[in-house]
Amino acid sequence: MSRSGLHIGIVGAGPSGCYVADAIGRKLPGVRIDIFDRLPTPFGLVRGGVAPDHQGTKNIARQFERTLGKDGVRFLGNISIGRDISYEELKAAYDVLVITIGALEDRRLGIPGENLDAVYGSGQFVAWYNGIPDGRDLDPRLDGKTVAIIGNGNVALDIARLLGKTPDELAASDLCAHARAAFESARIEDIWLIGRRGPLEASFTTAELAEFGDLARAATLVDPVQLPQTLPDGLSEEQEKVAAKNLDVLRAYAARGEQNDRPLRIHFMFHAAPVAILGAGRAREVVLERTRVENGRAVPRGETFTIQADTVISAIGYRSTPFPGLPFDAARGIVANAQGRVEPGVYTSGWCKRGPQGVVPANRADSLAVAELILADLAGHDGVGKPGAALIDALLAGRGARAVDFAGWQRINAAEVAAGQGRPREKLARLEDLLAAAAG
Ligand code: NAP
Description:
- This protein is α/β, with parallel strands linked by helices.
- It has helices at residues 15-27, 44-48, 60-68, 87-93, 122-129, 154-164, 177-185, 206-210, 237-256, 351-354, 360-377, 389-398, 406-419, 431-439, and strands spanning 7-11, 32-36, 73-76, 96-99, 105-106, 119-121, 146-150, 190-194, 218-222, 264-269, 272-278, 285-294, 297-308, 311-314, 318-319, 328-329, 334-335, 341-343, 346-348.
- Helix 1 packs across helix 11 and helix 4 (87-93) runs antiparallel to helix 12 (389-398).
- Bound molecules: NADP nicotinamide-adenine-dinucleotide phosphate.
């Protein structure tokens, strides 16, 4: 039985898609794999999500680059499913279709004032500073003295840390030029990092928390009263380890006191749930309600207070965005699936399968598991091929859709690296500039 005539389509060239392609390509040499992305650039969150000052995390892109460059693998960037090609057409073209579209949409706070000017979702804000074309023109208002960041995950910490860093501290990053200019002209004095539960329940990780201790100009402030004296019973061994380490770092910040010589303060505030955002036309204040944690949930204590916030950024997680026809679990904001199976011949992996949780290695494990599932399902398949590229290329050509191929991405990459001048790269953040660079 030969399966070398099989055509595999993958929608989304982020870590999950690249890992699936790599795993299937290794196990089934000779299969043809097409990886689509709505952007002209591959690597998903490695390029567009990972913080620009965490260059080490981005090294994994080299491995993905090798995957995309392999014989039998094609990258089709700048192709949007639902615009250039439909889900039904993909199913007609590929023996196996894998959906790895990530989670791009900001979850909503669902509180009054959320639609005021100067209120942003972290997805929008990160897309802006990381040079994703949809976010390029956000031009967020950073014209006040105070910023409130809602959420206690690593994305909230990324945003606070980047806003807290000096130009020198960002010199080795690939933060986009337009964001560097905006950060440099901002005159922020206070950044609030707001968790609706306590320090033990925060989802940020210790290494990311510890980075605040090294900031050059920003003081990190923690009210010792907000830190528990002891760990509660009932935590798993792993939870206990993480909570104890986070608590140690927070205690060290609390012990530093006010640090009045610093021009910028980053305040960790726990047990405060957002109730409303106030302001005439634009955000000026956030109303918060004090909470206590009961059975793992934030329970309001019936006491509210207000902080000044000229900019509000909610970093409370994401939802996937389905294209027409894709089975979707709207309540959870993920692709409807059972352990990665969507419908016959269609699979999913990564954040759009599980929800927006876990770093790149977690998605690797997920993608390897889905690849195994696909291989098991293919065991009875005798290699009758669907048309793959032949159908897709004819449809795209008929619609005048211009895919950016791997060589096109390499030209974008070379142009960005050359423009870096001492930085890792200067990203092209506008679609037309990316397409021009891809064309060479
Ligand atoms: P996250 O870790 O799920 O954090 C979301 C935060 O938002 C939680 O603190 C959550 O509080 C809070 N939240 C949710 N709904 C809320 C509401 N209505 N009001 C107030 N707070 C609310 O998500 P994330 O920060 O977006 O990160 C996504 C994933 O990417 C995570 O796995 C993260 O570790 C990973 N990541 C890693 C790095 C890194 O390794 N450096 C960097 C960025 C992201 P509750 O816990 O109370 O729900």
